[in-house]
Design a protein that fits this description.
With 174 residues, this protein is an alpha+beta fold. 41% of the residues lie in helices and 22% in strands. The longest helix is centred in the N-terminal third of the chain and has 34 residues, at 12-45. The protein is globular and about 40 Å long.
């Protein structure tokens, strides 16, 4: 009787391949679970005792003007990263906004003489950065130099940055 139970043959190679495929699939699920856990931990680690005053200070997007202490602190975190790519000491000019435990910047950089610093490959002087406040302090989450597009529009979806904060970078006014 064709197609009946007696026609079943155990093929070790096929079974091994199927098991290997299943293990690959399961390892991808496990990796996604671990990544999601890390993201949740990072989000939780930004909320610690004592930071409530900081969050209360910036519940809505706030413009950090030149001379603001937090603006200086954030640029000190960004400067070593930027100078590694720019290959010279840099100062920043542009718009910076903060909301809760996120900060964003869009502008450009200049050298010690005030000359704009261009990215060697594109010649573009644009700089953008995203910071997150964690247990260890502020960390740069994303950074661009010499970009020709507004890549930060994906930050709300990619990192959970408030949309209202990112919109401040793309608006023409303060």
């Amino acid at each position: 009787m064709a197609g009946g139970p007696s026609d079943f043959r155990f093929d070790r190679a096929v079974a091994t391949a199927m098991l290997g495929g299943m293990m690959t699939f399961l390892s991808k699920i496990a990796a996604a679970y671990v990544m999601a856990s890390v993201c949740v931990f990072a989000a939780i680690s930004t909320c610690r005792a004592g930071d409530e005053r900081f969050y209360d200070r910036y519940p809505a997007p706030a413009n950090l003007k030149a001379g603001d202490a937090l603006r200086k602190e954030l640029f000190e975190v960004l400067r070593p990263i930027h100078e590694r790519f720019a290959k010279k000491k840099a100062k920043f000019t542009g718009r910076m906004w903060v909301q809760r435990h996120w900060a964003v910047f869009a502008g450009s950089s200049v050298d010690e003489k005030g000359t704009p610093i261009a990215e060697p490959g594109s010649g573009n002087t644009e700089v953008a950065a995203l910071w997150l406040k964690t247990f260890q302090g502020w960390v740069v989450v994303d950074y661009g130099f010499g970009h020709s597009d507004v890549f930060w529009v994906d930050w709300p979806e990619s990192y959970g940055v408030p949309q209202t904060l990112v919109e401040k970078l793309t608006s023409s006014g303060e």
